[in-house]
Write a structure and sequence with these properties.
heterodimer; A: Glutaredoxin; Ubiquitin-like (UB roll); B: alpha+beta; 2 domains; 7 helices; about 10% strand
């Protein structure tokens, strides 16, 4: 139902109307529609619920809805049943009739679908009691588990667009700006520049035409927080942008979303369209006289476009190449006009600050890093997923209390933060509080929030090489240090992983790192050496083992390892021979199997398939 | 993105596409090229030439942009596109072996399309589905927690003459409504 809302009072009345309408639902079944859960089959689960609810004529009392990412991807599909907030994990379509019969009709729990704590072995009823959620502080993600991202009414029913009404009618642009400055909010895209100060630069720049941009080009491999915000609560980003535009005096905004996120593109477009229909975007917003519009631009697959000047070039229809700063975009940005760029999560924080005040926001976090930060906790960890924590929490708390420790009972080795600009942090530094300054001191950085956990089976030289390979492909090639320096670092690291490393390689890599840092044009090149320098700093012995002893302690670098079978452990089951693609593994019944080193391509399939741990890598 | 086999390029559809971009200046270039690719599955040279004339934007500008971004294709794409993620999370969980297996099974290197236009094989920097690592996306469907064995089964299923629905993965968000 489209309607123009033309004053804050009308918005309030409408919100009450929507809430009242929602009261008719006695129960709500919220199925997670995030990428993780949908790959685990949550769309089938949703269909099964809808079908069952219709079959039993419950449609007038029970609402089945698809929500944004709940975060607990590991246990997908996650389904929460309101009002009790019963949380069922790893649910399948065939479980649905039982859930309807027991939980919806008889108000009983289906025990086997509840999360089982791996330590206490207890079944847990509610999501907020599950350790994964209990240690988090969800603000940006607070509505992700129950909002339908395609419904503006749903957003309005939880107080959506109230911050906008407050900003437009109770505050001057200057007051909004001061509030954001006071809150201490810093850019969530990585570098952590104070948001309020950035806004002020742009506001103070001369010119009547100004732009704001939402950077949704989340390119860091291993990061998908922004995706979850755009797919779970797109209106919070739109609302934040309108408030920002009001404070800065911008007339037009762009949301730049990477093309790998089709659902984020779709939902953001839909949110913009709905906001238009309601009079919350476009001419004379809410009858305030303030006008502002937003357009979506899709990226086309270039990591460097996450850099603000490259992103601007891309919107202008050019190759996404960075240019030197100054002039900063705040002075001369999109089409030469003053432009302010913030990341998705930064924008989504703005309505929270306006609603609850700068003091409230500043009370969360550390002295220099305020508020919460979302992370994607992935890699060799038990509870993979999206988490949101107050800044200042330690890495150990995130990895062990929320993440549930390392998967497969293996030993922790390092955690990588900050994407290709970040570094690997070792075990003995896990008690470091997570904030912008501390992570930078460790030779890593906050980055947009990828947190990749690595165990003893990860080779740190291979990881460094991986990032150089990535950056070598993504470097735009405009400046020499980045284009050539990264390639040389990649060559050296490749040699080391192939057993051709030389003693002087480590110091050469360090020198190259300095050149990259000092000589590159943009952030991509300037931080490119971090993965290499941090692994040298903390895992030097691994480099030395590769170079001096021609050994890969983690058993990853193919040129430095051999596969063989432990005769005592081998049960002659034949599984290794079955999976071996080159027939290198062979044997007879009742005799230990063997691996022909000539034929072996070191793919590791035999090791993975052996249930008895008989395949040895040395 | 449509991935059909286009042998004869029917340029009629272009006029309709062009209409949506009139009078907006050079910044339309990327969305315009995206629209052309959505129509043809790749970027036929004739279409780019025509767009260049129509909008009076030098052809070199088109080629500059098209060759810069990873998602633009100047040659026809296979009927099926298999994309393997090589993001960090996938990497530490064994994506390299999954990629190797796909290369073996299809006889293609990354970025290549089979001669009969049945498959295109790509690797992607990160699909943003890290919780499912290693991830493979086949025609917009996400397949999580892959290993060489699972991906081999998956590819072989699609290689069959009659394309059958796979039982490994489930419906994905590409089908979201």
């Amino acid at each position: 139902m489209a309607r123009q809302i033309s004053s804050p009072i009308e918005l309030k009345t409408y919100a009450e109307e929507v809430c009242k309408k929602k009261e008719r639902w006695e129960m709500v079944i919220a199925v997670c529609g995030g990428t993780g859960c949908s790959a685990f089959g949550s769309y089938d689960v949703r269909s099964a619920f809808t079908k069952e609810v219709e079959k039993l004529s419950l449609s007038d009392r029970v609402l089945v809805k698809m929500t944004g990412c709940h975060g607990f991807c590991e246990k997908g599909p996650v389904t929460i049943i309101y009002p009790w907030q019963y949380t069922y994990v790893s649910i399948k379509p065939e479980d649905v009739p039982e859930v309807i019969e027991k939980t919806i009709i008889k108000k009983e729990l289906v025990d086997r679908l509840l999360y089982r704590d791996p330590v206490t072995k207890q079944r847990i009823k509610h999501n907020n009691e599950i350790p994964f959620y209990a240690h988090q502080k969800r603000l940006v993600f607070q509505h992700n588990g129950h909002l339908d991202p395609t419904s503006i009414d749903d957003y309005i029913s939880v107080g959506g667009y109230q911050a906008l009404a407050k900003a437009l009618f109770e505050m001057t642009p200057e007051q909004v700006l001061v509030e954001v400055e006071k809150s201490g909010l810093r850019g969530r895209g990585g570098a952590g520049f104070p948001t309020g100060r950035k806004w002020r630069f742009c506001r103070n720049s001369p010119g009547s035409e100004k732009y704001i941009i939402c950077n949704g080009d989340e390119g860091d491999p291993g990061a998908f927080m922004d995706r979850s915000v755009m797919e779970g609560n797109p209106h919070s980003v739109i609302e934040g942008m309108i408030i920002g535009a009001y404070a800065i005096g911008a007339t037009k905004g762009f949301v730049y979303v990477r093309a790998e996120y089709p659902i984020a593109v779709k939902y953001t477009r839909l949110a913009i369209e709905q906001a238009h229909q309601y009079g919350l975007l476009g001419e004379n917003i809410l009858g305030s006289g303030f006008s502002f519009d937003i357009e979506v631009r899709e990226g086309a697959g270039a990591f460097v476009c996450g850099e603000e000047t490259a992103l601007i070039a891309s919107i202008e229809g050019k190759r996404g190449m960075p240019r030197p700063r100054p002039p900063f975009p705040a002075v001369s940005g999109l089409w030469g006009k003053p432009t302010n760029i913030n990341n998705v999560e930064t924008w989504a924080n703005v309505p929270l600050i306006i609603n609850k005040g700068a003091d409230w926001f500043a009370s969360i976090g550390t002295a220099e890093s305020k508020g919460t930060k979302t992370f994607s906790l992935v890699g060799k960890i038990n509870n993979t997923g999206i988490v949101e924590v107050p800044l200042g929490i330690t890495l150990r708390e995130i990895i062990y209390d929320i993440g549930g420790g390392i998967s497969g009972g293996r030993k922790f080795k390092a955690v990588q933060t900050g994407g290709p600009s970040g570094g690997c942090i070792p075990e003995w530094l896990l008690d470091t509080p997570v904030d912008y300054e501390r992570l930078t001191e460790l030779g890593s950085m906050m980055g947009s929030g990828g947190m990749i956990v690595m165990d003893e089976g990860t080779c740190m030289i291979d990881v460094a090489r991986y990032f150089m390979k990535f950056l070598s492909e993504e470097s735009c090639g405009k400046c020499v240090p980045c284009r050539e320096g990264i390639d040389r670092a990649l060559d050296i690291l490749t040699d080391i992983t192939e057993g051709k490393g030389r003693k002087e390689d480590i110091s050469l890599l360090e020198e190259l790192g300095e050149v990259l840092k000092d000589g590159s044009l943009c952030g991509l090149g300037r931080t490119a050496a971090n993965p290499v320098l941090s692994t040298i700093k903390y895992f030097r012995n691994e480099y030395e083992a590769h170079i001096n002893e021609k050994k890969c302690p983690a058993g990853v670098c193919k040129a430095l390892i051999t596969f063989s079978i432990d005769e005592e452990k081998c049960k002659s089951c034949g599984k290794c021979a079955k999976v071996c693609p080159t027939k290198a593994a062979s044997g007879k019944k009742k005799e230990p199997y063997k691996i022909d080193k000539e034929k072996c391509i070191k793919c590791g399939l035999c090791r993975e398939s052996c249930k008895f741990g008989a395949v040895i890598v040395s | 993105m449509a991935t059909g086999i286009v042998r004869e390029v029917d340029l009629k559809a272009l006029e309709k596409i062009f209409r949506g971009f009139e009078g907006k200046g050079e910044s339309i270039l990327i969305p315009l090229v995206q629209a052309i690719q959505a129509e043809y599955g790749f970027l036929p040279k004739e279409a780019l030439v025509k767009a260049s004339h129509h909008f009076r934007i030098p052809l070199s500008r088109f080629y500059g942009v098209v060759t810069f971004y990873a998602q633009f294709y100047l040659t026809p794409r296979g009927k099926h596109t298999i994309r393997c993620c090589r993001g960090t999370a996938c990497h530490v969980r064994g994506a390299a072996k999954v990629i190797e297996t796909v290369e073996q099974e299809l006889g293609l290197k990354e970025g290549e399309t089979s001669e009969d236009l049945s498959f295109s094989f790509e690797t992607v920097a990160c699909l943003g589905a890290c919780a499912l690592a290693p991830v493979v996306v086949l025609d917009e469907r996400y397949y999580g927690q892959m290993n060489p064995e699972k991906v081999r089964v998956l590819v072989r299923q699609y290689k069959g003459a009659s394309i059958q629905e796979s039982s490994i993965g489930e419906e994905n968000n590409g089908k979201a409504d």
